Amino acid sequence: QTKTGIALLYDEVSENAYDIRLKLTKEVLTIQKQDVICVSGSDHSANHRTVTLRRQPVGGLGLSIKGGAEHKVPVVISKIFKDQAAEQTGMLFIGDAIIQVNGINVENATHEEVVHLLRNAGDEVTITVQYLREAPSFLKLPLGSPGPSSDHSSGTSSPLFDSGLHLNGNSTNTAPSSPSSPIANEPKYEKRWLDTLSVPLSMARISRYKTGTDKLRSNAFEVLALDGVSTGILQFYTAQESADWLRAMSTNISDLTLQNMKMANKCCSPSDQVIHMGWVNERLEGADSSQLYKFKFLALKGSSFYIFSTPPVSTLDWVRAEKIYNLCEVLFKIHKLWLVDDCWLQANLYLGIHQDFDLEDQRPYCFSVMVGHGKSHYFNVELGSELAVWEKSFQRAIFLEVQRTGSKTYMCSWQGDTLCFTVDFALGFTCFDSKTKNVLWRFKFSQLKGSSDDGKTRVKLLFQNLDTKQIETKELEFQDLTAVLHCIHSFIAAKVASVDPVFIDSQSIARKYMYSN
């Protein structure tokens, strides 16, 4: 199914926007611009057309013009009147820039100068025109017949003066002159939408923000292909149109990502499948103010969480990830959602393991992935639906890895003794002497009643003795305490999910938000 529509292409340098037509298929987004082409007759370049107009007693030249050097645009034809001189040539179109009038170059002339020349050019006026493919939207030129009938541009008046040359002007000839009409072997021209750029959507990314900043573009976004080719900034007339196009493109990109995952999974063992992957923005820590965020490509595959700067395309690419973490030792946490009434929601998941972030940035749909040694990565996605998918995918990937692994053992120490601490999906917690392998203590997951740590290496685990109902405190020291705490969290959450999947679903912050929307 193909989606088409009219939008604007915004040029940040000139700060002008140009009318374009978008064509979206499952795999490609195509940008089209209007141009005048020669459809029959001599194959002269349609770039420059020279047309002779005979001024009529009623209707004059039959056209209006806009623009001029004072507006940093050429003078263009803004209206062509039905059954009058300009229309009868079949060679002039709205949007044609006037380059010469009777051999005089007017490319850098003001509006008034061109009006004066045309009005005083006598009964026969020869003009050379070239279609202005990038007519700034402030000219408010009607888009004409190609494209949808709901014409965005024509209904609004332009800040620029529209000079009508359908008035008689200074005609000396009072007898009606023969109308300007196309001659049989003259070339025929048509205005058409032509493809100017095609952006493949496989592994493409969308950005609604000004590069690297928290400044959200109003009703506008940019699509970047895997090879870095950009559509430029696509601007829409309404927030609704912008949202519709954003959703349509995101859906197509997601579908293609799913296809890529299926292809990749054919080459991978059942224990090393890709669960989810996609583009996010990562907030740079301690970055300068101009570049707060950078695009990163995340993947959940087998036992690992990968961070890439560019997507893995071949099997070999998986080894060149910037970072690889074991899924049992990470903690996924949603930070912010933009609710319908624009208030912020702070979200803590499960055990409420909390870390204070500086949450002053203005981006909604943020999540962090906390990793070993107290470090964390802070990400943002473009849509609430993407946040819900990442939340669900992290849960699924972590639960699968816990069940696959079965148990994790960490070296630790207490009062000079080297011990081993095991988290086991079936048995719970076990601590044993690393040399003699003697079990010192063992507790089920359900016996863990609380914990506290010093934020560095030391943790106190509070277990309830099943016989005495008394709380027993076990104190241990780990080299990477954060990884161990995350592992405990992962195993307990997976255990709860295996017993009560409904509870885990009820904890989904992102999906609650999605449904409330």
Report on the architecture of this protein.
Residues 50-133 form the PDZ domain. Its main location: cytoplasm. One of its GO terms (molecular function) is actin binding. InterPro entries: PDZ, PDZ_sf, PH-like_dom_sf, Syntrophin, Syntrophin_4th. Belongs to the syntrophin family. A hairpin with a 4-residue loop joins strand 5 (63-68) and strand 6. This protein has four domains: 3-37 and 193-250, PH-domain like; 44-135, Pdz3 Domain; 268-353 and 365-404, Pleckstrin-homology domain (PH domain)/Phosphotyrosine-binding domain (PTB) (PH-domain like); 406-505, PH-domain like. The two termini are 26 Å apart. Helix content is 19%, strand content 36%. It has helices spanning 85-89, 111-119, 239-266, 384-405, 481-499, 501-506, 509-516; strands spanning 3-11, 16-24, 28-40, 49-54, 63-68, 73-80, 96-101, 104-105, 124-131, 163-164, 188-200, 205-207, 220-224, 230-235, 274-283, 293-301, 304-308, 323-326, 331-336, 366-370, 376-380, 407-414, 417-424, 428-433, 439-443, 448-453, 458-464, 471-477. The strands form six sheets. The chain has a seven-stranded antiparallel β-sheet, with helices on one face. Helix 4 (384-405) crosses helix 5 and helix 4 (384-405) runs antiparallel to helix 7 (509-516). The protein contains seven helices and 28 strands. By secondary structure, the chain is of the alpha+beta class. It is rod-shaped and about 110 Å long. The longest helix is centred in the middle third of the chain and has 28 residues, at 239-266.
